[in-house]
Amino acid sequence: MNMKAIGVIRSMFARTENAPHQGVHSREVARLVIFPEHESLLEGIERFEKVMLIYGFNKIKPDPKPGALATRTPNRPNPIGVVVVELVERRGSVLLVRGVDALDASPIFDIKPFIREIDCPD
Amino acid sequence: MNMKAIGVIRSMFARTENAPHQGVHSREVARLVIFPEHESLLEGIERFEKVMLIYGFNKIKPDPKPGALATRTPNRPNPIGVVVVELVERRGSVLLVRGVDALDASPIFDIKPFIREIDCPD
User: Fold this and answer.
1) Quick check: pTM over 0.95?
2) Where would a tag sit more exposed on chain B, N or C end, judged by fewer CB atoms within 10 A?
């Protein structure tokens, strides 16, 4: 299945060795830059405190090891990541978010509201 | 970016109108059938109570409407879903899980342990 980027992440992590292992540990603010033709998809997103970001690992060539699915390694069968981030502010087609662990220039595939009752089952 | 299926979901939902809106409301047990060549990736997964499943909406042609990213509609820019499911049992290359909202025959792209401290930030 082919995935199409709807935007790009602008973060301060230029290389893998600088990125946090999990975004939840990062307090830096990154920008989710949505391409102009997709800006209307964002309508109403500003009312959520947190969003789930689905993005690509554009600098990793998948080569998963035995047990990879039992870990959170970025070396997975498909180079895709999911992270819950804090939505600080929307500025038109750009979302300022906190908690991103992605490298700069990573493609954005989807964003959706984080809803605790759905995403954090007991 | 091209995504490669590592397995297939066997659920009781043959058609969109039968599927629950969110898997968290489903108590049915579905099977995540991992292809034999990827079975070793599952090593150790049986010690987790919940896993995050990343899968494809194989029967939906993306045609997102304005505001789609502010909702949980399956009609998204990319036909990919994320759901947290309860891992009931592992039987070799098959995981029995509860809480799937996916249609039967949906492709599986990734599975990872659900870790509350990471996936449910305060």
Assistant:
1) no
2) C
* pLDDT tens track for A31-48: 999 999 999 999 999 999
Q: How far is B94 from B115, CA to CA, in rounded Å?
A: 21
Residue A101 in any domain: the answer is: yes
Sort B18 into a burial class: Cβ within 10 Å, 0-12 / 13-18 / 19+: exposed
pLDDT digits (tens, 9 = 90+) for A62-86: 899 999 999 999 899 999 999 999 9
Residue of B nearest to A47 (CA): B70
CB-based contact B93:B39 (threshold 8 Å): yes
- Kindly identify which residue of chain B lies nearest to residue A85, measuring between CA atoms: B121
- Which CATH number covers residue A93? 2.40.30.70
CB B44 to CB A67 under 8 A? yes
